[in-house]
Amino acid sequence: MPRDVHPGGAALWAAHSAPLALPLLQEETRADVCVIGLGGSGLTAIHALLDSGLDVVGLDAGAVASGAAGRNGGLLLAGLAPFFHDAVAALGAPRATALYRATMDEQERVAAASAAHVRRTGSLRIAADDAEAADCDAQFDAMGAASLPVERYVGPWGRGLLFPTDLSFDPLGRALGLAKDARARGARLFERSPAIEVGADAVRTDRGVVRADRVVVATDGGLVRLLPELAPRVRTARLQMLGTAPARDVELAVPMYLRHGYEYAQQLPGGEIALGGFRDHHEDAEWTDVTEPTDAIQRLLDSFLRERIGTAAAVTHRWAASVGYADGPLPVVEELERGVFALGGYSGTGNLVGALAGRAAAEWAAGAPGPFTELFAA
Asked: What is the pTM of this model?
């Protein structure tokens, strides 16, 4: 694997956005709520808390969306991590349908708030073999019974399902826009300020303290590191990706995911391809919070790019990110102790499910549990 491709593992999205360079927290400050994690769920929570008239401080150990929120595949796919028929089996049809429709509503909120970073593309689920094609049939039937948007697909990429209302987006650009808007609304945001101690009335960093009535921990891939009591229920995985120069020899008009979602790809408006996957081929090694890409996975991504996608475009970016996987169909969205709320374990679906979790935590922290809180109630 070439090691001269953007040393440091910069994601393809970073080529399109300039960082904010927020200040470090270097003093003691006071807020109604402290939100830890400036990714999609944390920033969504911050805006919802601001809507409730609360004073908010936000912290991140790195930069805005420097974790998976700004380093993922850029797909806004409706639904939970399990395919819809599997969610029905686990949760029952009424609840699985309510959650699916909630993610569709969140798609529209994201599109309205971040129009410059969102494209209405739809998405494809492509079956790898006859067994997966049969699973697609089961998903199609379940979604049809729930009156959810889905179509059968047979085309140049294979056979499977088309989800016409799904979106694709620039995750880093969206997150940076949310952070800018939050600051303009009065939120105080700090980068490079890792939380080292979280309590019901204070969050301590290596240089400062935030005294707050409530704390929202929205770190997903870093959730267990900060809240080790969640370790039996949330595991951290490494997801690896690559990006290319503009590809002129292939057209990937609709983002797609293959082999039960283990591989995923989209083509950006400029022609670049973002592609990820193959975690299960070295699964034991990929249960880790290390975010350095590995030769083994990157070689598989290279082969997929050349043989399945069919482009000769040069690889320009290689990167990885940490993602939390829950031990069930729903993520962790709960009050761990009085005034401390934990969010994470989105199992690779944090772009929409994480945003809904952020809204739920904001309702809870504002003392007004409502429709978003109800989505994740035990």
From this structure: 0.95
